[in-house]
Design goal:
This protein has twelve helices and three strands, in the order H-H-H-H-E-E-H-H-H-H-H-H-H-H-E. The protein is mainly α and 314 residues long. It has a three-stranded antiparallel sheet with strand order 2-1-3.
């Protein structure tokens, strides 16, 4: 007689079991990390290490101070595009029956010999947002290097690494490091922002471009496609999006728990005060993004998409 595997307990098959187990495991792991960090800080060696490397890598004397208004605008646009790109990216990945399709008009400035391919309305919106995000990023790069703001993101000293380790221990022990982002990001922030701007963002663009219809076909560029296969792009694109989601969650959490009013003034009001202006502008920005989230539906997207191509229901 064929052997049958024993039935799994009903508890482990419950839909709530896995997320609950993951949540409990995450809390336990976090508690272990906090206790370990607190113990490390109680030792003489680590205490001396933090005193030597308090968390701020020195900046050049010519580094600009403060966050200008153009950076506030860029920050809002980047936040808006990232939220909507993640939303549409998940729709493209998981929605099996799109509520509309779009095909580019093969006339005007962009013309091709072959007929344009029909894509889902979700993918059209995702690619449109991608293009706007890239354009916003190009403006940011020009202004960043023109104003010298790049030096706040690009490490100029190897001391950034011990300072970053010190900062991580201080965060993990729940004893926040003393900092003033208006003058200088702490070393862990600097490395993280560098990773986001100079690694994750270009990676998202390159992998997204490889999967898009704008990439040359095998017939036109066989060597390029062999050197950079589609499978690589697909394997990297979704994890890169997940990295952005985790970054946003951690970033927002730290902004709101390490001096919310002052941090929001830095990011939305371009000044180093403790008033409520930055919070008000942040609240308005959130309302705008929430409004766009709900307006990003076929009912509202079809009229916009039809100005650039043909929209159909199937």
């Amino acid at each position: 007689m064929p052997q049958t595997s024993p039935a799994k307990p009903a508890l482990t098959q419950a839909p709530w079991f896995r997320p609950t187990a993951v949540g409990v495991g995450a809390v336990v792991l976090l508690a272990v990390v906090v206790l370990l960090a607190k113990w490390l800080r109680s030792t003489e060696a680590v205490s001396q290490f933090i005193a030597t490397y308090p968390g701020h890598a020195p900046l050049p004397t010519w580094a600009p101070e403060g966050l200008p208004a153009w950076l506030n605008v860029q920050h809002f646009l980047n936040m808006m595009f990232i939220v909507l790109i993640v939303r549409t990216g998940l729709q493209v990945r998981f929605v099996t029956r799109p509520q509309g399709y779009w095909k580019r008009n093969n006339k005007g400035l962009i013309k091709t010999k072959g007929q344009p391919k029909k894509i889902s309305l979700d993918l059209w919106f995702h690619l449109t947002l991608d293009a706007l995000w890239v354009l916003n990023g190009l403006v940011y790069f020009v202004l960043m290097f023109a104003t010298g703001h790049w030096v706040r993101l690009v490490p100029t000293s190897w001391d950034v690494f011990p300072h970053a380790l010190s900062t991580a221990i201080q965060y993990a022990s729940l004893d926040w490091p003393l900092e003033n982002g208006w003058v200088n990001y702490n070393a862990l922030q600097q490395l993280t922002y560098f990773l986001v701007v100079f690694v994750a963002a270009p990676l998202a663009i390159l992998t997204g471009l490889r999967m898009s219809g704008a990439w040359p076909t095998n017939a036109k560029a066989p060597r390029l496609n062999k050197a950079y296969p589609m499978e690589w792009a697909r394997a990297l694109h979704f994890p890169t999006m997940a990295f952005f989601v985790v970054f946003v969650i951690v970033h927002v959490t730290l902004v709101l728990t390490t001096g919310a009013l002052q941090n929001l003034n830095h990011m939305f009001a371009a000044h180093d005060g403790g008033d409520w202006l930055g919070f008000i502008l942040f609240a308005v920005a959130v309302l705008v993004i929430v409004g766009l989230w709900f307006l990003a539906r076929p009912l509202f997207l079809r009229p916009v998409a039809s100005t650039m191509g043909q929209v159909t229901r199937n």
